[in-house]
Amino acid sequence: MAGSFDVVVVGAGIVGAACAYACARRGLTVAVLERAGLVAGATGSGEGNLLVSDKLPGPELELALFSNGLWRRWAAELGDRYGDIELEAKGGLVVTGVGPGADGAAGLAGLRETARAQAAAGVLVELLDPAGVREREPAITPELAGGLCYPQDMQVMPAKAAAALLAAARDRGAEVRLRAEVTEMLRDAAGRVVGVRTGTGPVAAGHVVNAAGAWAGRLAGLAGADAPVAPRRGFILVTEPVPPLVRHKVYSADYLANVASGDAGLQTSTVVEGTPAGTILIGASRELVGFDRRYNAEAVRRLAQGAVRLFPPLAAVRVMRVYHGFRPFSPDHLPVIGADPRIPGLVHAHGHEGAGIGLAPATAHLVAQVVTGERPDLALDPFDPARFSSEVETAGATT
């Protein structure tokens, strides 16, 4: 075969790059296979959010808090050797009372309840009145009931972070092969996955990690596994560079509901944040439309209107470009992480939807522990790859 490795990671986005780094730093031999070029998927189309603010108490928040600490440590490890990944501990602001018909009082009460639950789970959060919000964001609209401040929220430049992780993995012996689409999962007589086949030949491996993002369901299907991950399209607007205007990641409270929703139709909520380059990133939209790459003018219009409503000075700022990507959507809004109990040798690391960049280090750490046989630092039961097929089988047995 064309090489034999302890681990083959399929997908070179932020999750795959992190898995390669986490495995290589443990001394495992690693090959990364990417169907396209570098950051050609969601990693190259994301805002770089590293959030705890948008997660309620439960397994995903535990994963986010764990990953938050790992991001800080990994950024220090990568250091200047692999380039600045633009990790900014800028903090996040969630605000309510923005927009026509907004019920500020009810929204603020909901935020208080959210804050209490998150604080009990270890999140640092501060309740703000309108004056407190404007003290942190002077350019924001005065039409606010209040908000929450999350000092643990951070931002990273995802393309730079993925490139740095892959470079660090290569320095530890990993191979990265671009435009190497996996066409077949290779299995032995007992059914164990023992490698993959690409257009340039087979690659043997002790474990195959499915980090294929929105394409993870297709890859799992090659091994006969059920992984109902679907692409969820989202648009982002990028403004021309401007003097410092937005200090934090700022988003309206309805973003929390949209993140948790499984509706297929178009949903938009206002998310605004600056970058070190001076540009302003504006999101966020969600719609389940398959891999439809067409421009959605309505989504873009809503995003622009919401951004101007939240930060009125943006009305005088030009949009430089609009782009979109496909988040890997999981039906229960939890990522899929761990060994597949139905197919030995197959390990999953996908289904994070918009949280993949933030959750990548923790996901990779757990994947490396699974591959090496270590006891995982977090319980993997909530992320069990077989949980969807189990539900189908249970339902079928009761009908």
Structure characterization notes:
By secondary structure, this protein is an alpha/beta fold. A hairpin with a 2-residue loop joins strand 10 and strand 11. Helix 1 packs parallel to helix 5. It is globular, with a radius of gyration of 21 Å. It starts with a strand and ends with a helix. The C terminus is likely disordered.
Main features:
alpha/beta; eight-stranded mixed beta sheet; single chain; 31% helix; 399 residues
Q: Based on helices, strands and strand pairing, what is the structural class?
A: alpha/beta
Largest sheet: 8 strands, mixed
CA radius of gyration: 21 Å
Q: What distance separates the N and C termini? A: 47 Å
- How many β-strands, per DSSP? 18
Q: What's the order of the H and E elements? A: EHEEHEHEHEEHEEEEHEEHEEHEEEHH
Uncertain parts? 391-399
How much helicity do the residues have? 25-40%
